[in-house]
């Protein structure tokens, strides 16, 4: 009786809430008010007879039974999506909607290029885009919440197909009045007297570890360095005159007050931008997006 009275909208609400762990953000994604979402979750809990989420003033967490229920619920949603896509294709009415995930840096160049070309074929397509961290995007594609994602290569791709699109170099960011700003192309040893803001991101651990090794090989002592947990945090330190930082080259495409960027001709470290998708029952519109992304990156 519980399964008959439980509707798809209940499962969708729980799935999105589990991804956001925040009623306000989840309600926004579901295009409903926060009280309406809360009521949906309470209704589902009443139907099931147990608590799905623990609510506090600061956060939302799934209970143990809630996590177990969510796993099966998301499988049901995936099967339903696939059934709809398959039936539409068979009927010659393939879906014109696509759900794309992307890390923030792609918004400053690559993603707009891909979308502009993509629109030529799917002018009326309904495009939904979500900006998240790479590991969150992996989960979203695995669960069927997204068709494709532009991300950094995950350490564990699971069942996903992951393809490298392009390799991005690093540059040095500094204030325009920094002594090194007078040199157009730098070498690692030129940074010997500079205060370095080092970035320590989990999803880019290997690339930044390689940078540290090359800095040490060039004779630099990196221990007294300022640490930043994200590229944008590092840029905040640089903008404040608190040192120089080796950052991904996409950063140079943004406007920063009194900040300039210089190449490092002997730094070999780089980071990859990849595209990931679940190959099973991939809709034609998603296949076309992948092909456009490949051509744009070439």
UniProtKB/TrEMBL annotation:
User: For this UniProt entry, what's an example GO CC term?
Assistant: protein-DNA complex
Q: Where is the HTH lysR-type domain?
A: 6-63
Is the Nucleotide-binding keyword given for this protein?
A: no
Q: Please identify the protein, giving its name as recorded.
A: Putative LysR family transcriptional regulator
Stored SUPFAM superfamilies:
Periplasmic binding protein-like II (SSF53850), Winged helix' DNA-binding domain (SSF46785)
Q: From what superkingdom does this record's organism come?
A: Bacteria
Molecular-function annotations in GO = DNA binding; DNA-binding transcription factor activity
Any keyword Transcription?
A: yes
């Amino acid at each position: 009786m519980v399964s008959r009275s439980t509707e798809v909208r209940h499962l969708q609400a729980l799935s999105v809430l589990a991804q956001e762990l925040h009623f306000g953000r989840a309600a926004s994604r579901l295009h409903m008010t926060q009280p309406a979402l809360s009521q949906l979750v309470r209704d589902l809990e009443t139907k099931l007879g147990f608590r799905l989420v623990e609510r506090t003033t600061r956060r939302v967490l799934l209970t143990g039974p809630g996590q177990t229920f969510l796993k099966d619920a998301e499988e049901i949603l995936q099967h339903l999506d696939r059934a709809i896509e398959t039936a539409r294709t068979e009927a010659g009415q393939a879906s014109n909607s696509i759900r794309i995930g992307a890390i923030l840096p792609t918004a400053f160049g690559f993603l707009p290029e891909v979308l502009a070309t993509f629109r030529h074929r799917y002018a009326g397509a309904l495009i939904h885009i979500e900006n998240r961290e790479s590991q969150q995007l992996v989960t979203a594609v695995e669960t069927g919440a997204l068709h494709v994602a532009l991300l950094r290569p995950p350490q564990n791709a699971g069942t996903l197909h992951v393809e490298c699109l392009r390799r991005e170099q690093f540059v040095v960011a500094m204030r325009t009045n920094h002594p090194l700003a007078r040199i157009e192309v730098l070498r690692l040893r030129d940074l010997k007297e500079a205060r370095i803001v080092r970035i320590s991101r989990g999803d880019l651990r290997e690339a930044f570890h390689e940078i540290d090794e090359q800095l040490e090989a060039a004779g630099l002592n990196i221990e007294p360095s300022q640490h930043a947990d994200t590229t944008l945090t590092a840029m905040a330190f640089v903008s404040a005159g608190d040192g120089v930082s080796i950052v991904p080259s996409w950063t140079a495409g943004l406007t920063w007050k009194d900040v300039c960027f210089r190449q490092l001709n002997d730094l070999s470290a780089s980071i990859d931008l990849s595209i990931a998708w679940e190959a099973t029952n991939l809709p034609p519109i998603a296949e076309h997006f992948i092909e456009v992304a490949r051509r744009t990156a070439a």
